[in-house]
Amino acid sequence: MKKSSLVVIAFAIFFLFFIQMAGSLVESIYILDLMNTSLDEKALGLLFFFSPIFLFFYPKKRPVQTVWFLFGLLFLARGLTPYLNTLGRMLTSGVGTGAALMLFPFLITAKIFITGCDIVYGLVIPMLEVETVAAARRAPAPGRSRRAR
Predict the structure, then answer these.
(1) pLDDT score of 67 more than 70
(2) Are residues 77 and 95 in contact, defined by beta-carbon separation less than 8 angstroms?
(3) CA 88 remoteness from chain centre
(4) Chain Cα centroid distance, residue 71
């Protein structure tokens, strides 16, 4: 397998997890705030999208342990999210989204040879997967047609 194929696969997995975690975070906040008529502390979950601000506290050279820690946090949060209730889903998807947003600059500035096409292909693959799942959900059950009777 060529090195660029591995880079595309890595970016595809990264973007897939990021899209799923961000969608789950917004969905959880929306569900929890639908029960109230006014905004409350659960809307603060949107602050997870601002987690890259913490990157300003890092020196120019970023330690490798931080990259692996963020990858581990992203994979762990993605693995735990489906098994939790709505509040737990909001917290784990927020942590996963924050880890992904902090990890993205590390991936872009890595010492590997990355072209713009690798990043675009890595983004297109998860988008096709998300659209395929959405189309499968909209499809009628076998033996049924879409026209009204």
Answers:
(1) yes
(2) yes
(3) 16
(4) 12
Give the position of tokens 């713009």: 116
Q: What angle do CA 138, 21, 33 make, to 5 degrees?
A: 80
User: What predicted TM-score, i.e. pTM, was given to this entire model?
Assistant: 0.70
Domain ranges in the chain? 3-49+62-126
d(CA 6, CA 82): 27
Cβ contact 103:14 at 8 Å: yes
User: Tokens for 87?
Assistant: 């509040």
